[in-house]
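Example record

Each entry pairs one chain with its bound ligand, uridine-diphosphate-N-acetylglucosamine.
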Amino acid sequence: MDSIEIQGGRPLVGEIAVSGAKNAALPLMAACLLTDEALRLERVPRLADIATLSSLLKGLGVQIGEEAGEKGQRTLLLDAKEITSTQASYDLVRKMRASVLVLGPLLARCGHAEVSLPGGCAIGTRPVDLHLRGLEALGAEIELEEGYIKARAPKGLKGGEYVFPKVSVGATENILMAAALAEGTTRLVGAACEPEIVDLAHCLAAMGAKIEGIGHSELTITGVPRLTGATHRVVSDRIEAGTFLMAAGITGGDLTLCGAEPEHLSTVIELLRQAGMRIEETNAGLRARPANGRLHGADAMTEPFPGFPTDLQAQFMALMTTAEGASMITETIFENRFMHVPELMRMGAHITVHGGSALVRGQKTLKGAPVMATDLRASVSLVLAGLAAEGKTLVNRVYHLDRGYERVEEKLAACGASIRRVAGE
Ligand code: UD1
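Structure tokens for the complex follow.
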């Protein structure tokens, strides 16, 4: 298994191009199942999770082609003219929970689908009950058998109303895609409003779907009998951009993130300013650096969009470990998302966890150490800590990083980081 080796203590200075968002690209790829015409997606990041979903889609009969896009970006052509299987196996769903996003589209297009239940993961139990209840509201018959979700809609899906008891990004996406082809009107109340959902809704609209309320928590979808192909450019990755904003802060550097969307990061930007960073909108995107000297503690609580994203919680905690004073970081989305805490403490951080909150007492320096990541965002938080720490940090289990950060060591090295990948046995 590969590791990442970092010699810390160098300020990062320069420009970084933000990639297309993984969390937008995944549902967009699943949306190809809704039409027998080709869907062309531009700026799809080269990531392990994208490769996993590509394998799954190929297994369902989707033909996938690749083209070089502008500035080294990648365009995927997904053609689901013929769906040859409606089963997503445990092997693939287990690797990546977002595989469950094929459920709604397969059911809507083919009238049946079998998708393995994803099971728990490192950051929590993560059930898919809301995905299932929402599809049932559209008339699906769902049974759980032998670890599989077996869904049927023999006479097709029918528009219905579903009120989400809790905000769920994935469930909103699954039900939205299914509703696009259901007969009649669907009303979704309490839907997630993340920019990745807005991106999906725009792509569906380009494919001929009729959706009102895009960007709001109440969506009205008037089903159409068929959708067509379309060309769509994946929204830029706000989590990657947010991670690099914090890289500028923790190293005392000066980074410009080209292609970052400020309005997708407003809560994050506000919080980082509160912590003493100077963040400016430029023609290219966002420029970030410490306003003057050391940052100071600031409190964060994760919430659905437009709140502070859970996917930046670990990175923000890394940033706060070297700030002056204390900060309280509260996680409200996932029940077990503090696995980075003991690893950061191995690097000398002072953190105390009480239930869903972590109290971070900032101090001047961290010390490099061998550390291990248990999930994607935790692993990048350790990279951030390593960039700031004195001496050498070795981040193990780097495959987590490859799931969500495109060429991360290349991007950081180009801005002055001493970082390299060490091939494992
Ligand atoms: C997506 C993101 C992930 C991010 C998360 C929250 C993708 C591919 N992944 O994950 O990076 O951290 O949003 O912003 O886009 N829940 C239920 N029942 C369900 C579904 C969810 O109880 O049927 C719970 C979850 O356990 C969690 C909360 O709802 O506590 C939010 O989860 P959700 O928004 O669904 O996250 P994902 O879509 O899995």
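The chain has a mean pLDDT of 95.
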